[in-house]
Design goal:
alpha/beta; Mannitol-specific EII, Chain A; six-stranded mixed β-sheet; 45% helix
Length: 154
């Protein structure tokens, strides 16, 4: 499964103004719920926070991959954000995050891990991260992500 198959162009938030991790997660989860017209949006927020309570999804290089498997969703949904300022996230490298890829999927989804791996594979490349950080708007961000996936993804 390719990111470009599940990520809508309007699912990209550029320069999202948030003060902290809880606000970031809550705003993104609410946006995801609204964008995809998900039933029981409070479950999305709860699921993301519950997963994050287990272990931070900050993977280093200013990237976070908050995610949850939920009984209330029927397929994989994703939103992406670049924050306006770095946000403390408890990442593995103790650095704040700016690039956040939020994913929710059904409980039994085999695509969940595949999508997380695909994001990690693409974001491993410094040129993609730098270009995403420099993107002037959501459309450019989306196009850079697709180009990175086409170049480095499977």
């Amino acid at each position: 499964m390719k990111l470009q198959d599940i990520l809508q162009k309007n699912a990209v938030l550029v320069d999202l103004a948030v003060r902290n991790k809880p606000e970031l997660l809550c705003r993104m989860a609410q946006y995801l719920s609204s964008l995809y017209d998900l039933r029981m949006p409070d479950r999305v927020v709860e699921g993301i926070f519950a997963r994050e309570a287990d272990l931070s999804t900050g993977i280093g290089h200013a990237i976070a991959l908050p995610h949850a498997r939920l009984e209330t969703v029927d397929r994989v949904h994703m939103v992406v954000a670049r924050t306006a300022v770095p946000v403390e996230f408890g990442a593995i490298d103790d650095e704040p995050v700016r690039l956040v890829f939020m994913l929710v999927s059904p409980m039994n989804s085999s695509e969940h891990t595949t999508v997380l791996s695909q994001v990690s594979r693409i974001m491993y490349h410094e040129d993609v991260r730098a270009d995403l950080m420099a993107a002037s708007d959501a459309q450019s961000f989306f196009e850079i992500l697709v180009a990175g996936e086409n170049k480095y993804g499977c």
